[in-house]
Amino acid sequence: NLDIQVSIPSNDEIGSLGKAINDLAQETNRYRTKRREFFANISHELRTPISYLKGYAQVLKQGLYQSEEEKLQYLNIIEDETDRLVILINDLFDLSKMEEGKIDLQMSTIDLTEVLESALFKVKMEIEKKGLTLKIQVDESVPHIEADGIRLEQIFTNLLGNAIRYTEKGSVVVKVWNADKKIHIMIEDTGIGIPEKDLPLIFDRFHRVEKSRSRELGGTGLGLAIVKNLVELQNGTISVNSQVGKGTRFQLSFPVAE
Ligand code: ADP
């Protein structure tokens, strides 16, 4: 840590310089702590699947299973954990590119409803498998927006994926409407909800309400950080409302294309 603490003897220029130095030292320390936490998180997240891979590979190598069925179960775990590693590495790569401003967005004038439809098609099976109801309400004519179709779809599949992941029964509601020269999108679920104290943090990298639940359900804790970055890179905004036990609502807006 930067161990700087200037004493401020006066209220003049020297005094304010002293205060500026103290503020800077404090900010630097906050940044360093965040960085340290981030790297600790990454190594933990990488180590967990790797230890499963190693453990189950050893079990198989030593023939420590009772039946072919059990063997298949272990192989499935190895496959799942490998998939998880690939997702995690891709997410990390995406995030670091975005944060350095090095991601190339292919912006064009697009019909957001088509992109949404394609995202909904991809998650339809998951929704059916969980017995959830999907309700869609889209304005008759929705003006085009300026965006990157692939990245926009990534935003939708991510938010829809979360809505499904954290909802046991009830519905996922999607609404799209046009107001104040903006297109608004709402994705709402009747799931477990997010405690008020976590709400300001859920867009942070690796922040999860329940680590084990998120992991069990295939989450990496990076989804919403990526979503927020992608939304803002496309000149949009995102906000969240939630009530524990009732459900969660994400709302996005993008400016209508000129
Ligand atoms: P994860 O991969 O863990 O889902 P995200 O960054 O997508 O990571 O989300 C961060 C955390 O926010 C999740 O771990 C979960 O606790 C909470 N969360 C996100 N979306 C929802 C939702 N629709 N309902 C309840 N909790 C949610």
Automatic annotation (TrEMBL):
Keywords (A to Z) from UniProt? ATP-binding, Cell membrane, Kinase, Membrane, Nucleotide-binding, Phosphoprotein, Transferase, Transmembrane, Transmembrane helix, Two-component regulatory system
Single Gene Ontology MF annotation: ATP binding
- UniProt domain Histidine kinase: residue ranges: 41-258
EC number from the UniProt entry:
2.7.13.3
Protein localization: Cell membrane; Membrane raft
Q: Where is the HAMP domain?
A: 1-33
**Cellular component, GO, one term:** membrane raft
For this protein, what reaction is catalysed? Answer: ATP + protein L-histidine = ADP + protein N-phospho-L-histidine
- Topology versus the membrane: Multi-pass membrane protein
Lineage, top-rank taxon, reads Bacteria
Protein name as annotated: histidine kinase
Q: Which organism is it from?
A: Salinicoccus cyprini
The organism's taxonomy opens as: Bacteria, Bacillati, Bacillota, Bacilli, Bacillales
Please indicate which part of the intact protein appears here, giving the first and last residue numbers and the full length. Answer: 201 to 458 of 458
